[in-house]
Amino acid sequence: MSNKTKNVFISHVHKDDDGLTDLKNLLKNKGMDVRDSSINSDRPNNATSPDYIKSQILAPRIDWASTMIVYISPETKNSEWVNWEIERAHKQDKTIVGVWERGADGCEVPEALDEYGHALVGWNADKIIDAVNGDYEQFEAPDGTTCEPRSIRRHPC
Question: How far apart are CA 132 and CA 134, in angstroms?
Fold first, then answer.
């Protein structure tokens, strides 16, 4: 497999920063070099205004990426930031891929991922790479078994 570079934004909660390094190494070992534009402890964001953070810091980073990876851990579903990031990526027509954290045994995923996600996969480099490349569009439990996204009550416009 040739080494492919992919511009991604990894949506996550900050306590999962270490897991992002594991994820990028997992993909790198399979030949995908991930350039991650997300904010993490290596590149902290010291701004305090949510509007400023969204419009001036997060939006350009999401817009730059071709794909959004959503790192799923138990805290992810309650993050307003993660849901906002997914909605922003959807509005920009990005591929949105959920990835269960290594060793996950399942938890609720952010509502926006159920609504706008293209795939949700376990800790499996080949499936993650296929999903990032748009070649795999299934929702899976952490063990790799197929599951359906939760049904979302759609609000009429």
Answer: 5
Q: If you classify domain 4-133 with CATH, what class do you get? A: alpha beta
Indicate if the pLDDT at residue 156 is higher than 70.
Answer: no
Task: Quote the CA–CA distance of 154 and 135 in Å, as a whole number.
Answer: 27
Q: Sign of the CA dihedral 110, 85, 23, 46?
A: negative
Which backbone phi and psi does 125 adopt, to 5 degrees?
Answer: -55, -45
Alpha-carbon torsion 99, 102, 106, 109, what sign?
negative
107 — pLDDT class (breaks 50, 70, 90): confident
Q: In the chain, where are the structural domains located?
A: 4-133
Pick from 76, 141, 68: which is nearest to 111 by CA?
76
pLDDT tens figures, 23-72: 999 999 999 999 999 987 777 677 788 899 999 999 999 999 999 999 99
pLDDT value of position 134:
93
CA torsion, points 5, 42, 90, 4, in degrees to nearest 10? 10
pTM of the full predicted structure? Answer: 0.90
How far is the C-alpha of 54 from the C-alpha of 58, rounded, in Å?
Answer: 5
- Residue entry with tokens 């359906």: 148
